[in-house]
Structure formats: C-alpha cells, structure tokens
Structure prediction request, 444 residues.
Amino acid sequence: MSQPNPPRPGDDAHVPDSVLDELSAAFGAADDPVSYDFDDPSIDRLLGLGPDVEPPAAPPVAPPVESPVESPASTDAVVLPFRSPRAQQVSTESAGEEPVQPHQPDVAHPTDRPEVPDQPDEAEVGGARRTIVIADDGQPDTVYLDEEKEERFRAVHGDGTSDRSTIVISDLDDGAVSQQPPTASGGSIDPRVRARRISVRRAEGRRRLVWVAVGVVALLLVVGAVAVVASPIFGVEEVRVQGATYTDQQLIADIVAELEGEPVLLVDTEALEARLQRDPWVERARVSTDFPHTVVIDIRERVPLATFQGGDGSWRVIDVQGRVLAVLEGQPISMMPIDGEHPDTTPGQFAGAPYADAALLVRSLPGEIRVLTRAVVLDSAVGTMSLLLSPSASASSEDPVVVRLGDAENLDAKLVRLLGQVRSGLEGVASLDVSTEEIGVVPR
Prediction:
C-alpha cells in the first residue's frame, strides 16, 4: 500500500475536517463554548463507523497480538483492539512518520465542560445506538526498551494473556460502564518456595516415622521383658530358710511349696514378709531372691524369757515386751516361771506392762543370782515384784528367801544391792528388802 502524500502549503482543500476541529479545539479561545453533535455523520466517519466510509489508511505497524477474547455475539458492536497512546507513538516513530496527537476534548475542568445540546430520539437518527466494546489485546500499556526489566515484569505480573478485562460502553445517554472482573489467576509458585515446602513436609514425615519407631521399639521391649520375666526358664528351684526355730513349720512349708517353679523375678517379697511376721514368734522376716533360681528367707525370732500359767491351766510364753508367743499344755522348764494370778492371753497378744517388767527383770538377773532364783512373784494389780531365792546352790530344798524389789524403777541399783547380799551369804536369812537404799534383812 502506497504512503499518502503530505499536504502542500496553502492547499486547504486537502485538509480533513477532523484536523481542523482538533486545531480549533487546541488553539481556539477557552471561553468559546464548543458543542458537539453526536448525530453528525462526520463523527461516524472520524471513528470509522459509517457503513460506506472507509477509514483513512494507517501507517504500517507491527501486527498486534491476537486476543483470545471473542467478540460479542451482537452484530451491532465493534471490537477495537486497545492500544495505549505510547504504543501508537512508538509504532508511528518506527515507521518514520511524525506522530499524530490524538484528539482530546477540552474536559480539563468539570466546570469548563461544554454543554451538549439535547440529543434527538433514537427513532429520529435511524435506530438504536451502537455499543462500542474495547477489548484488551493482551499487550501492556508500556513498551519496555529494556528486555531484562520486561522479563522480570512478566515473571512477576504474568504475560497478560491469562487475566483480561473487557470494558463495554453502552448507550451514551445512561452513561453505564460495566467491567468484567478478572478471573482468578493461577499464578505459578516460585520453585524455591515449592522445594522448601516439600522439604519441610518430608522432615515432618521423618520425625513422625522416628516417633512411631521409638514407640514400637519400646512396646517390643516391654513385651520382651514380660515374656522373659514370666518365662519358666528362671523359675525358683531352691528356697533357703534361716533362723526358724520356733516359727510355725507348717507356715514355712506352705510358703516353700508356693515358691517352687514360680519365676524368680515375679516373687512378691513384701507380701511374704508380711505373711511371716504375722506369726507370734517372728520379730522380723526378710525375703530376697538370688537370680536365677534361689529364694532366701531370713527370720529373726523373738526370745522367750518367762512363762506363766493362766486360769485355764495352760502355760503362756512371753518375751521382753510381754507378748505371748505360745500357749503350751505343760510348763517349759527352760524358762523362768512367774507366780501369781494371770490372765488367759492368746498367742500374739500382749499380757500387759507388769509382765513386760517381769520379763525385763528375768533378762537383767546376773548369773550369780539367776542360779539361785526359783521364780518371780508378780502382783499384777499393783505391779510389784519379788524373787524366790534358794539359800545356796546346794540347799535347793530349803525354804526360799523372799527378796522384795518393788516396781521396775531403779532396777539395776536394786539388783546391785541384792548381789552384795548374795555374795555375803543368805544363810539364816528369811527375807530381804532391796527396794530402798537401806537393805532390810529379816533373819529366820
């Protein structure tokens, strides 16, 4: 297509009306009101809307990028590719032509807006008005001369093809402008951010796997320990009993029978100790295990010191605390008898404080006095005590010497005074009173 010839100076016949209008608007007086008749066919010619008018030839420019936005279905709408003034200026300059400034109506100030005359009815101008649709052609408004900056801009904001907006300008009378909202962009994620998220998820998964593995291992250890503990491989094969002289032999036999074959690590030692200590003779019991097959029972028994005959005729054996250890049918000859009236105390019970004092006296007797002592006389009502002594070791058949001790206070001092009299001789003595510092001697 040939280039149009530039107008010659002084040739007014070749100047288009549109150029004259623009010059008039640019250099005319600001006070002169400018009115526009939108029904004038020249406006349609200027915009290229007339059916029989061809638009003026435009300088050759680079072909615009095809817009994926489809044209409206209506045949009355004309879709114009949207080009920024800057893009048009660059295109014109690249073609070697002088840029043509677009027509800008004088609308700088709202107060200076020219009055538009009343528009005639649509019926008078020959039908309904046309709708102008300006669609985005996908090119940015600014043409970047720096390719590196343009690439960064496209990387951040996209290439402009995914999010498009269409501006529809309908009837000029109602002034309604609708804009289609841009669709949500499925922008890509930075590969480094995606890699970081993947690594974080993998690290969390590895931590969960570690905790699960630890729990499984702990469970397996517990199950294995229970299996080993309950295994008959480590069953009890030997039970050693120490110190059981007066302890109930049937009780010990039952405990030994229960322990045989039981896993040594499952032996309840505390329960066995409590069971043994319920025996009156047992003062303390210790049960221990000797891995892998042995159980040791160590018993410390109470020491019997004296015996007394209850109202039922049975003899009670007591220790130093006055606890009844056993009830026997006959008198035990190895223990000091206590004369007097006594209660029928059952095994495991305490006879009372006076009997504990009498047992303490028996345990405190020196050897020289013990060999001469026949019995301890106890008055449980008042708590006083006396000794029945033989005058000598050879005169055991003679009447005994009665030694009054009183209560258990200062018992050591009283025994010291008695020991002095025994060493001096008890021949011809009927009774002694060592309860005070002045010894009272009653001769026969």
